[in-house]
Design goal:
Blueprint (H helix, E strand, L loop, with lengths): L2 H22 L16 H17 L9
Helix pairs in contact: 1-2
């Protein structure tokens, strides 16, 4: 991986880590600082990465037995 590729991936890795931290801290999913409908492809991708990290630490299950 080149330095340029690694530098381009860094914002995505930071968004993933921030999402995981938010999930561990039991913040609401609405705490995501990125817009999934953002103006740039990068912001939309960061929103997806943040939400992915959040979901990895908050595997909320739904009880359908009722």
């Amino acid at each position: 991986m080149s330095i340029e590729s690694a530098a381009a991936a860094l914002p995505m890795l930071r968004a993933l880590a921030a999402g995981k931290a938010a999930g561990r801290d039991e913040q609401p999913v609405t705490a995501c600082p990125y817009s999934p409908d953002g103006d740039t492809a990068q912001e939309r991708a960061q929103a997806r990465m943040w939400l992915r990290g959040y979901a990895q630490t908050r595997p909320d299950t739904v009880d359908y037995s009722a």
